[in-house]
Amino acid sequence: MNNPFQQSYPAHEGGAFGVAEASRATFLQRTYAHLFGAIVALVLIEVVLFKTGVAWDLAGFLFRGGLMSGLLWFGGFMFASFIATRFAYQTESKGKQYFGLALYTVAIAILFSPVLVIANEYAPGVIETSAVVTLAGFSALTAIVFITRKDFSFMRGVLMWATFAAVGFIVMGLIFGFDGGVVFPALMIALFGGWILHDTSEILLKYPEDRYVGAALTLFASIAMMFYYVVILFLRMRE
User: What pLDDT, in 10s, does the model give residues 157-180?
Assistant: First the structure.
């Protein structure tokens, strides 16, 4: 899940391109290259998990293990997310930043696989459709930021509190057995769309140019979670 404790950076002196424009462009190219690499790595790991049958084992653990396995699944996800983002955002070591991105990519692949197993078995085409919808949404939101160059940092407080509320709802849902129907995943898609707007503007306007790995992780987290909830939404709409 997008890390609400992620560091917010002050704007570069002189605005988004107060530093040399070519240098900022290189930073952006590196950020999106690493983002693309993380997405490709996620897809490849999922393919391995499906080909080896591990994805079905993980699905069995989650869906037959009851409340405890659900809480362990969610707790593992939150822990991996926290550790990965700590490495990516709060260290100047490139090696540790890459470790954070790699850790998060592997964790996301493992934790997404049970839902992808269900989609693959009972709703053919949902995974592919969800990927297209997510890519279209991300592209549109990115275009809004790059065309308007608007600073969406004002959204940070609302997004943080909404994220905390979502975490609370998920935990209560696991304990008491409710899921929010189609409304909850729709709201989560909107939430991560908001994070994409916020994070893209931070990356365009404020991020230090040596933190392109952390910037890529920021976007990757939001895109991955948006994709996850698009899959959930389509599955619930088919029920």
Answer: 999 999 999 888 988 887 888 888
Q: Would you give the DSSP letter of residue 65?
A: S
Q: How does pLDDT run across 119-147, given as a tens digit for each residue?
A: 999 999 999 999 999 999 999 999 999 99
SS (H, E, C) 8-48: CCCCCCCCCCCCCHHHHHHHHHHHHHHHHHHHHHHHHHHHH
Question: Whose CA is closest to 225, among 189, 172, 197, 174?
Answer: 189
Q: Which residue type is seen at 98?
A: Y
Tokens of 172: 């209560």
Q: Rounded to an integer, what distance in angstroms lies between the CA atom of residue 226 and that of residue 230?
A: 6
Query: What pTM value is reported for the model?
Result: 0.88
